[in-house]
Amino acid sequence: MMKYSIRKFILLICLFLSVISIAFANEDKNSGITFEFETDPYYSNVSWYLNFDKKKIPTIEDNNEENLYKKLLTSSALPQYMLIELSLNPLPALGTYIKRQHQSFYNDTSLGKDVNLIQALTEGFEEPYAVSIFFGSVVQYTKNTEAIKSKNKGYMGYLLSFGDQHIQNNTLINDNWYEFEWKIKGDLDFENKVLSWSLRVGGKNHQHEEIQDIIYFSIRRNHFNNIKDNWSWINNSDFEYTIELNNETGDIVQQKVLVTKKWGLSTANKQALNFGLGLIQKKNKYSGSLALEQEEYRLIIRSNFQF
Questions:
Q1: Helix/strand/coil (H, E, C) string of 184-226?
Q2: Dihedral (Cα; 93, 97, 100, 104), 10-degree rounding
Q3: In this structure, how many other beta carbons lie within 10 angstroms of the beta carbon of residue 130?
Q4: Which residue has the higher pLDDT, 173 or 272?
Q5: Rounded to whole angstroms, how far apart are CA atoms 27 and 208?
Q6: Of 90, 94, 84, 89, whose CA–CA distance to 12 is shortest?
Q7: Strands 59-60 and 129-141
Q8: Model confidence band, residue 144 (pLDDT cutoffs 50, 70, 90)
Q9: Rounded to an integer, what distance in angstroms lies between the CA atom of residue 188 and that of residue 191?
Q10: pLDDT tens, 223-249?
């Protein structure tokens, strides 16, 4: 594949989605086409998805977290939706910019030999942006006392993602990569509670010969309830764990664990202070000119305001 060809393809998809957005701007909800977006310092995206049969999304009204998982797993196995998503990782991308354009300032944020504050705040994302195409089932989560929100959905199916840049230690590397996975995820945003989760199994291939192709398993749970005890780890915390294996030998290439604690500021809204700590273990992920001198551990710091 020619250098930057994926970037050109991404730009074409952006143009295509813009045209589709204009064409269906005045269509009613039965057109089967929906647009959504979300903003976050670490992961922002805009998505367009098509309902193949134009039937109403199945609804699930249940406050029991375990039942939410079970009902999504038992939803239709046949793909009902296609979703195209354009995603951007703002802070990780900013970290590469600061290191590239303001090297002296970047170096001044070092806290000793092995820890850099900017790197710790932006660590955990291996690309600045991506395009993803999803095929699978979708369900709508509802609560009889609240209006339906478009983001309250669960997804199960197959996802193909690709891009042309890789991030290593806040440095951009030209690398045409693609990733294929099976995933199940969901998001709930009710009056007093926010809950999201995902389970992913897949593989990632790199055109760059010095970056290891891998298979992986990842699990994440994010929960907040503003009327529960602020110190409850079940109701007000996030947890994420990912393990990557060499796709040929099965050896561990990388592991990531991240735990985030949330403190609600008021029972009248969902504003909260979030602070997370994590660790990434990198082991034989890179070779040649990108190779690490030894097994490497990287600190992750996540700190933001939820509103």
A1: EEEEEECCCEEEEEEEEEEEEEECCCCECCEEEEEEEEEEEEC
A2: -120
A3: 23
A4: 173
A5: 44
A6: 84
A7: parallel
A8: confident
A9: 10
A10: 888 777 777 777 888 999 999 999 989
CB 51 within 8 A of CB 83: no
Identity (one letter) of the amino acid at 6? I
The pair of three-digit structure tokens given for residue 113, joined into one six-digit string:
């030999």
Q: Position 10: which residue type?
A: I
Residue with tokens 């090297």: 103
In three-state secondary structure terms, 306 is strand
Q: How far apart are the first and last CA of the chain?
A: 43
Q: Which of 234, 238, 243, 241 is nearest to 219 (CA)?
A: 241
Structure tokens at 186: 């969901």
| 106 HSE (CA, 13 A, CB side) | 16
Do residues 96 and 170 touch, judged by C-beta distance below 8 A? yes
At residue 258, the 3 state secondary structure works out as strand
Backbone angles phi, psi at 290, to 5 degrees: -95, -5
SS3 16: helix
Q: What is the DSSP letter of 72?
A: H
20-24, 48-52, 234-238: which range is least confident on average?
Answer: 20-24
Given a cut of 90, whether residue 48 has pLDDT beyond it is: no
| Ramachandran area for residue 19 (φ above 0: left; ψ -120 to 50: alpha; else beta) | alpha
Q: Mention every residue, 6+ apart, whose C-beta is less than 8 A from residue 180.
A: 158, 159, 160, 161, 202, 203
SS (H, E, C) 112-156: CCCCEHHHHHHCCCCCCEEEEEEEEEEEEECCCCCCCCCCCEEEE
Structure tokens at 174: 């030209």
- Residues 153, 139 contacting (CB under 8 angstroms): yes
3-state secondary structure of 26: coil
For residue 269, give both structure tokens. Answer: 């809204």
